[in-house]
Design a protein that fits this description.
three-stranded antiparallel sheet; 220 residues; extended; disordered C terminus; alpha+beta; DUF2726; Queuosine biosynthesis protein QueD
Length: 220
């Protein structure tokens, strides 16, 4: 009698496990996914390349970092904590430079894509400034100009990361985002003059005057 009871129990458990797994598989079949593409657009990628170059071995650059992974609310009760957490739950930092050994955030960077200010963008900036100020995280505002003049970007970072030092100018191609190299004209009316040219030549023929100077931001 006991053996019959054991067999029944085993069959019931087996049926339950199989049914549970089958139902889970059926649920998953209703959900299919596809890649959305690159995480960053062309402007964001160009700036990311410039930022990685500016930081060098002195930091790790992360992008699209959820605020809730970097900061946490400081609240006296659960209600206030819940409200404060909701404010940052769906927001993120454009770029975060972290310590290369511990990945502790050192600097947060907000990338200005040049689009006109609207209510949502203004509210985002207010939140970013408040979060960074209260958490003691330096916040740097950057534009697409910094993608082409890495020296300026390095100077901004050097104010917060001691090991980073400004050095010679480094630029990235405005057309494709690739590093640019310095060459000297060997013929023509500009013979002997230095100029920047895209490292992907002949695939990209963008060139730039060596002495071109972008307008300095008033914030600097």
């Amino acid at each position: 009698m006991e053996s019959v009871f054991i067999v029944v129990v085993v069959l019931v458990v087996f049926f339950f496990v199989v049914q549970k797994r089958f139902l889970k598989q059926e649920e998953l079949k209703d959900s299919e996914y596809k890649k959305k593409g690159a995480l960053l657009n062309m402007q964001e990628s160009a700036f990311y390349n410039a930022l990685v170059t500016a930081v060098g071995e002195h930091g790790v650059v992360l992008t699209k970092v959820s605020m809730s992974n970097v900061v946490a609310p400081v609240a006296t009760n659960k209600k206030h904590w819940f409200i404060a957490n909701n404010r940052i739950a769906k927001s993120y930092f454009d770029y975060v430079v972290c310590d290369p050994r511990t990945l502790e955030p050192r600097v947060a960077i907000e990338f200005d894509n040049g689009k006109q200010l609207d209510k949502g963008k203004i509210e985002r900036h207010k939140l970013l400034m408040h979060v960074c100020k209260s958490a003691g995280i330096p916040l740097i505002g950057a534009t697409i100009k910094h993608s082409y003049q890495v020296g300026r970007l390095r100077r901004l970072l050097a104010a917060h990361i001691d090991l980073i030092e400004p050095d010679k100018e480094v630029r990235f191609c405005k057309r494709c985002g690739s590093p640019m190299v310095i060459k000297t004209a060997s013929s023509g009316e500009h013979k002997g003059r230095r100029f920047f040219t895209c490292s992907r030549q002949p695939h990209c023929t963008y060139t730039e005057n060596y002495n071109v100077v972008f307008e300095e931001d008033s914030s600097e």
